[in-house]
Amino acid sequence: MLEKEKQDQPEINIGLVGHIDHGKTSLVKAISGKWTDTHSEELKRGITIRLGYANASFYKCPKCPDPVCYTTLENCPECKSKCKLLKRVSFIDAPGHETLMATML
Predict the structure, then answer these.
(1) Residue 75 forms beta bridges with which residues?
(2) Full-model pTM
(3) Cα separation of 8 and 10, whole Å?
(4) pLDDT tens-digit profile of 48-58?
(5) How many Å apart are CA 11 and CA 27, to the nearest integer?
């Protein structure tokens, strides 16, 4: 079972930093399917206050040609065949407001 747990761990960590309202959280949502702003103040104010985390897996369809063969789904959206896992990635969504730079760093 330890080997299975190792396979489920993200291989790469990617930190998203940038100015407020430039789409960092929306990008993580588009890739991972998870909205990283979960704190009540974040939801109320519409800004990232704390670091947010989300994982995503990237797959490649063995049957479809490039570039449509890459997906974040286990089954290909084009031909519905089982895709091969390429990488597991962890995203760290940092706040972009200047008063929260210490949290970002």
Answers:
(1) 82
(2) 0.76
(3) 7
(4) 777 889 999 99
(5) 19
